[in-house]
Design brief:
CATH class of the largest domain: Alpha Beta
Structural class: alpha/beta
Distance between the termini: 31 Å
Strand content: 15-25%
Helix content: 25-40%
Number of strands: 23
Largest sheet: 10 strands, mixed
Shape: elongated
Oligomer: single chain
Radius of gyration: 26 Å
């Protein structure tokens, strides 16, 4: 008897062997454990999305306030019979009936059955339109022929060997009518042979422009207003292999209301020769994807260069041209820890390649007798200045605000005294984002001394208040869907290494000093987001962080941390209830490892 789990385990074993060679034992063990947990969780997760007959009937009986026809575009090419029938059947099973299926067939003579099957379905249902193309024009050309066949108000993109969830169009209609969405995308699942045993489930963030520039996380399933095509044009042959990515970039540039449906409504079939199985079967996809991102940047007049990220296919690194030579003020609150502070400043001075900066150390009631000697040594450095907070004992937020008032830079880089610079161009990596008009704060990737992840951004609403995604995974681990390895928009980043525009920081009144031990950085980031500015995490600025400042807490400190948590959860309760837009409600709120609920 065939074991339905075998395809997934065989794939996992192959990937584990490659990872062992490239990343070592610890990273591979973590990767395998996560994948096994994901596979187990995915099986039960799939069942959560099954519609009962009552639910199907309720959706079928729903009358929306306007009638919209959704034209589903499917370019056919030598599609295996089983896949073709299953694909069409999944459209026929839709609970929303206002659809049109446009099949443009570029199959060769040896696959005449494709047309026969398509015509068979078209004769049974007038909503199915079939056209045999005189010549195979490639994926973009064939897709454009589908567009020409489309009579609908909205367009949906669908691959010829994949499946739709029965409620896919119904959910899209709800987004269109209730949210006035003109571009919609959903979560998706990748499977081999049987959707009951998925390989992976991609639970996506809401729309995030930096995340999209780094990789086509939107992918499947997309539905969009046909009027957008009048502004953007259709598929472009020059980007074949990533023609969908190119189109998504152009559509989202024009869309007024992008809606993400955090439900698995698309089933992406992985088989030999498909990108879902291994993108290396079509290496030109990576080149085309990078070209699509570069074209997007050029189109918007953004002075930046896109390049592929090594060892992480179909992901891209954006190098924004730094404008001018603005001064950066590195602000380091300091209390005791002379060795750590000396090491921190030494790493800045020795490794930094950006020239125009100052280091402001905020002395705050140190009791270690060695601190005075360290301060004297550091002040011999031209770029270092020690300022003393003399109004009694202060906490981190107060120290940062005091340092900011003493700073002369256009940008503030807040840094913990127990950090150590790894990346030579760390300031440039932060500044290239911070200088953008749409960005308010930027955070770095921080490691513990044992080379596990300490900080890679912050998710609001998990772990009871806010959590650290990928906390303590191996440095070589690429993270969930590669998210440890590319720049992306997040709700918050850690002030252990955070760059903020002075103008933004001052306009918001700096850090809220009501927070004494925790959450001042998260609170600042959320206030930045309230101003419609982005918070970006970049993995290309790397530092070590020993967390010396978080030893075993005494009773008073534990009480204060609890007070800080209460203040934060009360102040941001509405956002926590809605969920972090850059995470996904399908992940467990009690974990930091992207495991499904």
């Amino acid at each position: 008897m065939e074991n339905k789990n075998m395809p997934g385990f065989v794939t996992l074993a192959k990937k584990a062997a490659v990872s062992l060679q490239e990343n070592g034992l610890r990273a591979t063990i973590q990767k395998v454990r996560f994948r096994l947990a994901s596979m187990r969780g995915s099986k039960s997760f799939v069942h959560q999305y099954k519609l009962s007959e009552a639910e199907k009937q309720e959706q079928k009986n729903t009358v929306f306030d306007r009638y919209i026809t959704i034209s589903i575009l499917v370019p056919l090419y030598n599609t295996p019979e089983q896949y073709l029938r299953e694909m069409i059947d999944s459209v026929l099973d839709q609970t929303y009936s206002g659809w049109q299926l446009c099949l443009a067939d570029g199959s060769d003579e040896g696959h005449a059955y494709v047309g026969e099957i398509a015509q068979e379905y078209a004769e049974r249902d007038p909503r199915i339109k079939y056209k045999k193309l005189e010549t195979n024009e490639g994926i973009s050309g064939n897709s454009n022929r589908c567009i020409e066949m489309a009579d609908g108000d909205y367009i949906a993109l669908f691959d010829h060997d994949d499946l739709l969830h029965p409620a896919a169009l119904f959910e899209a209609m709800e987004a269109i009518t209730l949210q006035e969405a003109d571009f919609i995308y959903t979560d998706e699942l990748t499977f081999e042979k049987d959707i009951e045993h998925p390989i992976s489930i991609h639970c996506k963030p809401d729309f995030a422009i930096d995340t999209l520039r780094a990789n086509n996380y939107i992918c499947h399933f997309t539905v969009f207003d046909k009027k957008l095509l009048e502004k953007t044009g259709g598929f472009r042959e020059a980007f074949d292999g990533s023609q969908d990515f190119d189109l998504v970039l152009r559509l989202t540039e024009q869309a007024k209301n992008i809606a993400h449906i955090p439900k698995v409504l698309y089933f992406w079939r992985s088989h030999e020769g498909s990108v879902a199985s291994d993108i290396s079967v079509k290496p030109y996809c990576v080149t085309a994807g990078c070209a699509a991102v570069q074209d997007h940047l050029d189109r918007l007049g953004i002075d930046a260069k896109a390049t592929p990220i090594p060892n992480l296919v179909a992901t891209y690194r954006i190098a924004y041209q730094i404008q001018g030579n603005p001064k950066i003020s590195i602000i380091i609150p300091s209390r005791n820890g002379p060795k750590e502070l000396a090491r921190c400043v030494k790493s800045i001075l020795n490794k930094s390649t950006y020239p125009n900066y100052e280091i402001i150390i905020v002395e705050n009631n140190s009791t270690d007798g060695q601190m005075l000697r360290i301060y004297k040594e550091l002040e011999r450095q031209e770029k270092v200045r020690i300022v003393t907070y003399e109004a009694g004992e202060c906490y981190y937020a107060q120290a940062c605000n005091f340092g900011a008032k003493e700073a002369s830079g256009e940008y503030f880089a807040f840094l913990h005294s127990d950090t150590q610079v790894i990346t030579k161009g760390w300031m440039e990596e932060l500044l290239m984002y911070a200088q953008r008009d749409d960005v308010g704060a930027v955070g770095a990737k921080l490691y513990y001394p044992n080379d596990t992840v300490e900080h890679a951004g912050i998710v609001v609403g998990i772990m009871g208040s806010a959590g650290r995604p990928h906390h303590r995974v191996d440095r070589k681990n690429v993270g969930y869907m590669g998210r440890l390895c590319y720049a992306q928009d997040l709700s918050a980043v850690s002030s252990a290494c955070m760059m903020v525009k002075k103008s933004v920081f001052d306009s918001l009144g700096g850090f809220d000093e009501d927070y004494l031990l925790r959450f001042a950085d998260v609170d600042l980031c959320l206030r930045i987001r309230e101003e419609k500015l982005l918070v970006v995490y970049t993995p290309f600025a790397e530092l070590y962080h020993t967390e010396r400042s978080v030893p075993l807490l005494n009773k008073e400190q534990r009480k204060q941390r609890s007070i800080d948590r209460g203040l934060f959860t009360r102040r941001w309760s509405s956002m926590m209830e809605l969920g972090d837009p850059y995470y996904n409600p399908n992940f467990s709120p009690d974990r930091e490892d992207f495991i499904l609920r």
